[in-house]
Amino acid sequence: MATEHLTQGQRIARARHRKGWDQATLAEKIGRSVSWLSKVENGRMPLDRMSVVGQLAEVLGVEVAELTGQPYRHESADLDSGHAATPALRLALQQATMPGGAALLGARQPRTLDELEANVKLAEQLRQDARFSALGDVLPGIINDLTLITSDSSADQDRAEALMLRACHMARVSSNLLGHHDLGWTAVQRELVAAQRVGSPELVAAASWDLCGVWLHEAQLDPAKNAALSALDQIEPHVGADDTLKAMWGALHLRAAVAYSRLWDQREAEGHLEEARHVAESLPRDGNAFQTQFNRVNTTIHAVEVSMELGRPRDVITRAEHVEIAEIASSERQAHYWTCTAAGYHMNRKDNEAVDALLRADRIAPQHVRNRPMVRNIVRDLRDSGRLLRQRELLNLAKAMRLP
């Protein structure tokens, strides 16, 4: 069978066979029953939590992408979600991170910093809208121009480096969401360099937030947790009346909450959630420091995600009902909320409600939704269960995702 068409369960079975283990051996190592593992491998039980996928990847000694099958390519250019821009983005990031990379771009005149700042702001809106194809069209050129400017000693280096960090943040997010995790690493490495060169606590916090994001996507949970805690310690002396630093402080607590929830540590996860809630109460309702969307609504979205990762489906639905989702100006965050809510409904065996939530998420941000492994697993399971009120729409979604 072609690797592209393997289900996640088949990928787990392949990795298990490579280790020379039977199902009983793997089940014992992850603290599950043989019946549970058999259902997962046979496609009769979806893996709807990244915490579980991460545990399996760690025990099997493989990268998460080997079990999820990312990146996923789609047949239409509109839904290919920016994959087509990956070669150009990869080259731009390589030249941005290598010594002397600017010399490889030739003797051309980059855009001014004022022009680039305006272009970065437009690109950031594409990132929040999860329009990755459109973002992929403009981001490599922005990074190339900033590579030229940051190599020019006569330029405003601090401003250029800050813009480079913001551009590489977008490269990191889109790369991770599309499954190009190695490219996400390249992007965050350039962010860390920018933060170090400028030395401002805000940029250090922003780069650290993205570092946590890379590790969460790769299910490296202890490094993600430790990076969040280390960054909190590092910026704590600087947190005062400045709203940006307060927002980054809160955003890092949300990173820690997600990491602890995937480690199934409820006490620590809820503790960091509470810290984030407390900070958010003193900040603007539309806060979006460094594209973190740190605000009161996003803390409630994270609470839904934390309950989902902890395997507490009733709490997922209870918390979801209290999220004022229309108040957050981010299609990506809205779609994330609806997919987490769908997972909660599915865990509660409320499949029609799960389908409604998934279809709603897909209407909001299809390029985001159709590239998420968790969503694809749930859609496949719902498709195969049958007897749903919106079965035809679900089948069309599964077809658009090219699910095996």
Automatic annotation (TrEMBL):
It comes from the Bacteria. One of its GO terms (molecular function) is DNA binding. It holds the Pfam family HTH_31. InterPro entries: Cro/C1-type_HTH, Lambda_DNA-bd_dom_sf. This is Helix-turn-helix domain-containing protein. Residues 12-67 form the HTH cro/C1-type domain. SUPFAM superfamilies: lambda repressor-like DNA-binding domains.
